[in-house]
Amino acid sequence: MVCLGNICRSPLAHGILEAKAPDNWLVDSAGTSGWHEGERPDTRSILTAKGRGLNIDGQRSRPFSIEDFEEFDIIFAMDSSNFSNITQMAPSEEAKSKVRLIMNEAYPGQNMQVPDPYTGGQSGFEDVYDMLELAIDKFLEQQ
Ligand code: 4NP
Q1: In angstroms, rounded to a whole number, what is the distance separating the alpha carbons of residues 134 and 88?
Q2: Ordered per-residue pLDDT tens for the chain, 143 residues
Q3: To test ligand 1's pocket by mutation, which of 4, 37, 45 has the most ligand atoms within 8 angstroms of CB?
Q4: What is the reported pLDDT for 6?
Q5: Domain of 34?
C-alpha cells in the first residue's frame, strides 16, 4: 500500500488489508517520499483505525524501495501521483504491471483517487477509511 508520506492513507490501507487477508499474506505500506521515515501513522489515522477496531500504531513510515517490486506481487497506489512515481521506478515491464490504483478494485477503469487527507480534519480520514475498506473488500472477493 503506497501513498506520499506513509502516515495517513497507506497505513489505513495496510491495517485494513492485514486484518482481512489470509494469515500467510505479506502486507506492508510505504511512501513515495521519505519525509516521515520512522514516524508513527498520523494521530488522525490512528484514531480513525481505533474507532473501527484496528490498532495501527505499531506501524512506522518507510520510503518505497525498488526491492519492493521483488518482494510484493501487487503494489497499490492511492492516487495517480503515487502511481506515476512508483511506475517510474519500475525496473521492468513485469514490475510496472504490479502497480494498480486501489480504487479501481471497486470502480474498475474509473481511476478514482483516494484524496490526501493530511491538511483536512478528522472527517477526511473517516471518508478515506470507508473508501479503502470498500476497495479492499472488492479486491478480496476477487481472490
Ligand atoms: P499520506 O498523506 O500521503 O496519505 O501519508 C500525507 C502525509 C504527509 C504529507 C503529505 C501527505 N506531507 O506533505 O508531509
Answers
A1: 28
A2: 999 999 999 999 999 999 999 999 999 999 999 999 999 999 999 999 999 999 999 999 999 999 999 999 999 999 999 999 999 999 999 999 999 999 999 999 999 999 999 999 999 999 999 999 999 999 999 99
A3: 4
A4: 98
A5: 2-133
Q: Is residue 28 part of a domain?
A: yes
- CA nearest neighbour of 137 among 51, 20, 52: 20
Query: What CATH number does the domain containing 95 carry?
Result: 3.40.50.2300
Determine the distance separating the centroid of ligand 1 and the alpha carbon of 3, expressed in angstroms: 8
Tally of CA atoms within 13 A in the half-sphere of 130 that contains its CB? 6
Contact 8, 125 (CB under 8 A): yes
- Mean per-residue pLDDT of the chain: 98
Question: Of 23, 28, 116, 130, which residue is the catalytic one?
Answer: 116
Active site residue 3: yes
- The total of structural domains in the chain comes to 1
- Supply the residue whose CA is at minimum distance from atom 8 of ligand 1: 5
